[in-house]
Amino acid sequence: MVRNTDLEILIPDKYVESITERLSLYSRLENCQNEKDLQDLYQEFKDRFGDVPPPVQDLFTIVRCRWLAVQLGFEKMILKNEELKCFFVANPDSPYFQSSSFLNLLDFIQTSTNKARLKQVGKNGILIVKDISTVPVMHDFLARAVNHRRPVVA
Fold first, then answer.
1. In the beta sheet, which residues pair with residue 121?
2. Would you call 62 exposed, middle or buried from its count of C-beta atoms within 10 A (0-12, 13-18, 19+)?
């Protein structure tokens, strides 16, 4: 989901020396379907290879970010130069843009953050978020957006 970044998010050679093993672990990480799967794999990393270094911790957080991004309706994300670009579904007629998820996200942008803005490039909508310097900061922003609920108007 995060297709492009200038952060070092990887399994270092010194942590897992075998290229084949690293590729297998990347695949297993990508295939985690829920938090329990992710926590079990994290524990396996610790048991087999020792304390999990920050770049690997970020990999686990990226998986969580991917889950949040799907809930928010993003097709892809780019994190570069402390700026997060989140790309919405390309079809402007998609029912997503009438959904409560989208309306909650709009309310979040308008009322709960001053870091984000929407931009239209051709038919594509992009959410641009400033000051996203680390993977945990990105996760925090996405989690707050997912959990935001518009006030019910009586």
1. 124
2. buried
Q: How far apart are CA 78 and CA 86, in angstroms?
A: 7
Structure tokens at 21: 């093993």
Q: What is the DSSP letter of 32?
A: -
Chain segment 3-16, per-residue pLDDT in tens: 567 777 899 999 99
Cα separation, 93 vs 91, in Å, equals 5
CA angle 34, 82, 79 (to 5 degrees): 45
Whether the Cβ atoms of residue 50 and residue 56 lie closer than 8 Å to each other: no
DSSP 96: G
Summarised one tens digit per residue, pLDDT across range 34-87 is 999 999 999 999 999 999 999 999 999 999 999 999 999 999 999 999 999 999
Task: With CA atoms as reference, report the closest residue to 79 among 135, 117, 27, 140.
Answer: 135
Residue 88, pLDDT score: 93
